Amino acid sequence: MSFLGFLRDQRVRFLAVGATNTAVGYLVFSFFTLWVFADVYLGYLISLALSYVVGITLAFVLYRRFVFVVHGHVLRDFARFVSVYLVAIGINAAALPLLVEIVRVPPLLAQLIILLVTTLLSFFGHKKFSFRRGGEHSEGEPPIADG
């Protein structure tokens, strides 16, 4: 398989964009956790919220443009996209204090562990819900045959 053929695979593009978005989000989370809210009780949760604002915005643009390659329905897609992320945020907001306060995992490591789980869940949520087109297929994958 050529490099271009490799890049045509939607899963590869999802992972590449997801890795980029995850790195940016993790850097934002780390920055706020270590330097802005370092002395604030549960400051890592404020950092988490801010990193999600940046991450959701960046991810929506990149997934829409490079992974699922859809057009139109921007507001509907964004609302669906945010709803998938709300599930991820819920999981993250519940798991992060559990890992940090109960299990005593350092916040940066705990967030990294949680990101691995929520990234996998988000692929299916975005593919099957956020960017789904009724009766259509995205330009990034072939149509699904009926029957």
TrEMBL record:
Q: Which GO terms describe its biological process?
A: polysaccharide biosynthetic process
Q: Where in the cell is it found?
A: Membrane
Q: Which GO terms describe its cellular component?
A: plasma membrane
Q: Which InterPro entries match?
A: GtrA_CellWall_Glycosyl, GtrA_DPMS_TM
Membrane topology term reads:
Multi-pass membrane protein
User: Which terms are listed as keywords in the entry?
Assistant: Membrane, Transmembrane, Transmembrane helix
What does the similarity note say?
Belongs to the GtrA family.
Q: What is its main location?
A: membrane
Q: Does the keyword Transmembrane helix apply?
A: yes
Entry annotated with the keyword tRNA processing = no
What are the GtrA/DPMS transmembrane domain coordinates in residue numbering? 13-131
Q: What is this protein called in UniProt?
A: GtrA family protein
